[in-house]
Every structure is written in C-alpha cells, then in structure tokens.
Amino acid sequence: MDVTVSEVGPRDGLQSIKRTLPTEAKHRWIAALAQAGLREIEVGSFVSPKVLPQMADCAEVVGRARSIPGLRVIALVPNLRYATMAFEAGTHVITIPVSVSEPHSIANIRKNHAEIIAEVAAIVELRNERFPGIKVETSLSTAFGCTIQGVVPEADVLRMASAMAKAGSDAINLADTVGYANPAQVRRLFKRVRDEVGERTGGAHLHNTRGQGLANVVAALDAGVTTFDSSQGGIGGCPYAPGATGNIVTEDLVFLLESMGLDTGIDIDKLIAARAILAEALPGEALYGHVPAAGLPKGFTPAAAAGRAA
Amino acid sequence: MDVTVSEVGPRDGLQSIKRTLPTEAKHRWIAALAQAGLREIEVGSFVSPKVLPQMADCAEVVGRARSIPGLRVIALVPNLRYATMAFEAGTHVITIPVSVSEPHSIANIRKNHAEIIAEVAAIVELRNERFPGIKVETSLSTAFGCTIQGVVPEADVLRMASAMAKAGSDAINLADTVGYANPAQVRRLFKRVRDEVGERTGGAHLHNTRGQGLANVVAALDAGVTTFDSSQGGIGGCPYAPGATGNIVTEDLVFLLESMGLDTGIDIDKLIAARAILAEALPGEALYGHVPAAGLPKGFTPAAAAGRAA
Fold it and tell me: Which residue in A145, A212, B39, B250 is a FRET match for B134, CA 20 to 30 A apart?
C-alpha cells in the first residue's frame, strides 16, 4: 500500500450530527468500510457523554471494531482521564487534538498551551508504563489558520510540533480544522514540520470548506505525506469552529489517489456500497461527494487512468 | 500577472442552460466580470442558432465586449463558416474544439480527424490572409478521457497536438471535457505536449465532475500551465457528453490561486458581486462554489495566506 486513507466519519462525522446512531448501525458501517479495504478507522471519541451523547458507546464500538481482522482502531481523547478509558478499551491508536491557536484550544478543550502539553506528556507516560503497545498521536488543529485567531504563524506550528515530539507523541498530524489551507502552504508546512520532527511527522487532516480539500491533498503528497483523513459522504467538521463544515469526502479522495496510480487497498465500488448503510441510518442527512454521483469513468482502472500503460 | 483566469461562463455556461439570457444581461455580467479584474472572457459561440439559440446574439455580444478596455474577447467556432463570422465581428481570439476521441468529434461537430485538421488549417489560412491580428486557438477535447471511447491514449493527444501546431494553431489547450483527469495525468500530459509543440502549449480547461478540478489545477501549475478556464458559479459542461457536468468554479479557482500567492489580477469580493447578476438573471438555476458560501478566511490576504511573510 502506498497511501493510507484514515476514515474519520464514525468519530468526526457522527459527533457533528445531533442524532445518535445506534451502536449496531455504527458497527455495520465500520465493518462495511473495513470490508471495502479501509485499514484505519477513527471509530469514536472518549469524551463526556453530556457534551457528546453520540459518542457515549465509544468503548463498546472500539471493542467490536477490534474484532475486525487487520483494522487499526483509532479513538480521539481530549485528556488523561479519557485516554485511560481509551487504553483500557483496547484502542490501537489514540489521537489527541492540540490547537496551535491558543484561543481555539481554550474554546475547544478549555486548556491553554502549557496545560495541553503537560496533558500529552502525562498520557504518554501512562502509555509507557501500562499500555506499551498503543500508539499516541497528536493532531495539530488550526495549523493552517483559525476562525478565532485568523492567521496562524508557521513558527507557532513548528514550536508546537516540537513540543509534541518532546512530550513523546509518536505521530504529529496537521489539521486544517476550518478549511483555510492552500496547496503552497500545505507543501511548505509539511516540509518544515518534517525538518523539525523528522519521522514523527504524521498525516494530513484536510477540510473542503472552501473547495480546496483535494488540491491540498496533491500538495501534501508532494511533501511526502502518506496518511490522509477523510469521511464518507464528507460528514462532519469541527463543532467549535463557527462556519467550518466539510471533511474531504472519502469516496472522492480514494478516486483521486487510485487514479493517480497510488495503491490505497480500497475497492471503490465496495466503498460506495458502504455509503448506503450511512444513508439508510441517517435519513435526510446531507451526504456529499462527486464520484458517488457521477460514477467511475468509462473503462476506469487505476492503471489505465494513471496512464502507466500509455 | 502570474496566472490568467479565462472565464468561459458566458459561452460554456449559458449554452448549457435552456433559457436564453437577454443580450443586455449578458453584457452586464461580462462587464461586471471585467470590472472584477478578469482579462479574458469567452463571451459566446458562433454556431447555428437552430442548435444553440442561446448564442444567436454572439456577434452583438462580441461587439459590446470589445468596448471594455483591456478585455480579451474570445469566441468559440466549430468551422470555417462560423470562424469568418467571428473574425468579422472583431473577436480577439477564436477557439476551435478538436476532439482527440474521434467518436466524440463526430458526435460533437460531425467531423472526423482528417476533416477537422483540414478545417483548422483553412481557418488559419483565412486569418493569415484577411485577419492577421486575431489569435487562433484550438482546444483538445477529451484529452484526458471520453465518455464514448473511454481511455484516450496519450499518444493520440500528442499526435493531435502536433497536427494542430502544423495547421498553424497559435495555442493548443487541453480540455478534460468529461471530468476524467487526475493530477498525475495532467502533470505528465502537459509536459509531454510541451515537449511536442513547445510554446504553442496553451491553457487547461478542467472540469469538476468527479471533484478533482482544483487538484488538477495544482498539477497543471506544476507543469507550467498559466491559463485556466473556469466558469462563474460552475455553470456549464459539455452538452454532447452524457453525464458530464461541472466546469471548475471561477470563485474557488481564484481563491486557490490567490491564496497560493499567485497574482490573478482579480478582486474576489468584486467577483462574488458579479455572481449576483447571474443569480438574478437565472432564477432557480444551480450556482456552485464553496468560497461564495463559506466566505474568505478571517484576516485573509493573499500574502498572509501564502505565508510569504511568515
């Protein structure tokens, strides 16, 4: 596999939708995604059920997802307390959101920079002591700009990436939380982060709020990124960033990568079939995506589209 | 100016819409686009008014557009007869669609390859004799794939590009008529065409049918392309290619380019204001675009977004 598509719909998507999907429907959807070839799925977040009742069954969802062979099960956690629950539930990878914009960090998880850095260090320490097999990732939110702060200086991103590496984060992802990124910036910032933290440089979490999502993927590929977050049907966004909607659509992302000749391990037809489960479970909810609407090109095979035989 | 955005909405967009926009409304829209900084607009096509009654006023539209200072006025023509009309109307640039897929060429303009090559040569000859100031461009349709033929071999594109250069076409554009292109292909094919026809290599006409439009723009920029077709609100497509809809959206394209630090000469706020004219003139018609819906990022300036001062 050349590139990993990391599906975040069951977490980022479902937590943005008021309605709570029953555990059984979540599992059916996650199983169908895995069946389509997805090898990494962010299945939920361990957070207060008062704030996000949609995620109250996260431990059970993780437990069932773990039974799917070959699937890396990811969960989001905001702090040490919920990280402990995620570790105990047997999550393979936890991801901690860390806002480069301090006002966004305070609005989102009520922690300033010093506090979240200390929290990540404490989570890594707990992992090292009691759960050595589990991977700890951090996701640098608002790395490309912030609806509260506006422009986010690249120096701040590098400083936070370095702090995360020092705290022991195994992978440091960059997130365009509010859809402000452009390809020149994505290309440059991933390279600068790699210069700063080397192999700890993680994946790209890009949004399509301003229609630039896949353009930014192309730039990230150029900068050596090999893991991309996306959500089926483009569901989800960031509930604490006003006006920010729109993860990039898994179906369109997989088509992009496969048609470029990159191997994602994903069967697009099966992926589109998994969408039906979501559509049925969430009647009336908007599902996005151009490829599901337009279909695959006539005579499409990844090799032919990439012109490798031309 | 680093990059030219060539607006095709008044031609490609309006000819795809059943209703005919009154000449006065066309002119108001074109003038507003020019006012926003667009320096190249494809204002119509010289074609049979029986087939496309929406374009019956093309000579008048060209005449009025010519009165706008600094605007390059482009019109599409399918053959020598209509090229003559376009030349006589004072069009600055004519563009001739030439399908690399022969079945598409026959469906679209009822000419096989030999016939269209001869037609282009005759048009260039007429231009050379009687209208020496006018630029003759050809646009290689289905260069990235075809809904009728399926895969279009790159060798066929290179052969047709070479034939167009030999026939005297001043610029040879590549068009993803049906939204099949991917960034790897775009990057490679533009480079190969440049190797074949050098400075006659023209711009990119990309569609967003499968959501890949702006991703393909990023790839084309890498390959040295400096002119991009798009339509305001994403109106239009190719009426003879079933299922093909969706020019890339001018508003989203300009945001992409400007945020990358490229100078388009276009004021995004004025561009979005021009959209209101279209919305008013075409009530009920779907207008696309993420940037008009989401707005510009907080604190957005092209320089800040591109991080040139970071």
Answer: B250
What tokens appear for B235 in the block?
């109106």
Quick check: A233 pLDDT over 50? yes
Q: Is the dihedral of CA B227, B233, B234, B237 positive or negative?
A: negative
Specify the CATH superfamily of domain B4-305: Aldolase class I (3.20.20.70)
pLDDT digits (tens, 9 = 90+) for B105-120: 999 889 999 999 999 9
* Contacts with A146 from chain B: Cβ below 8 Å: 298
How far A13 CA sits from the closest chain B CA (Å)?
19
Chain A nearest-CA distance from B64, in A, is 34
Q: What pLDDT score was predicted for residue A213?
A: 96
CA A206 to chain centre: 8
Reported pTM: 0.95
Task: Give me the pLDDT at residue A102, please.
Answer: 96
What are the structural domain ranges in chain B?
4-305
List A residues 186-225 in contact with B (Cβ-Cβ < 8 A).
188-189, 208-212, 214-215, 217-219
3-state secondary structure of A129: helix
The count of other CB atoms within 10 Å of the CB of residue A284 is 6
C-alpha dihedral sign at B186, B8, B242, A233 = positive
Marked catalytic residue, from B238, B244, B271, B291: B238
What mean pLDDT do residues A198-210 have?
A: 96
Which of B172, B220, B168 lies closest to B196 in space, CA to CA? B172
Reported as type and span, the H/E element at residue A4 is strand A4-7
Probe site for chain A from B231, B251, B290, B291 (most A CB atoms < 10 A): B290
In A, minimum Cα distance to B151 occurs at A299
Residue B16 DSSP one-character state: G
Q: What percent of chain A has pLDDT over 70?
A: 95
Which of A151, A298, A307 comes nearest B185 by C-beta? A307
Of B189, B260, B297, the CB nearest to A184: B260
The residue of chain B with its CA nearest to that of A217 is B215
**B152 in contact with A, Cβ within 8 Å:** no
Tell me what percent of the residues of chain B surpass a pLDDT of 70. 95
The type of residue at B201 is T
Joined tokens for residue B187: 């990057």
Average pLDDT of the segment spanning B250-279: 96
Distance of alpha carbon B281 from alpha carbon B20, whole angstroms: 10
| Integer Cα distance of A301 and B48 in angstroms | 38
As a three-state string, the secondary structure of B135-203 is: EEEEEEECCCCECCCECCCHHHHHHHHHHHHHHCCCEEEEECCCCCCCHHHHHHHHHHHHHHHHHHEEE
Phi, psi (degrees; rounded to nearest 5) at B139 = -120, 115
Q: Answer whether A230's CB lies under 8 Å from A253's CB.
A: yes
Nearest of B128, B133, B154 to residue B91 by alpha carbon: B133
Give the whole-angstrom CA distance, residue A99 versus residue A142: 6
The DSSP secondary-structure symbol of A247 reads B
Compute the 3-state secondary structure of chain A and give helix, strand, coil in percent, each to the nearest 5.
45, 15, 35
User: A186 with A211: CB under 8 angstroms?
Assistant: no
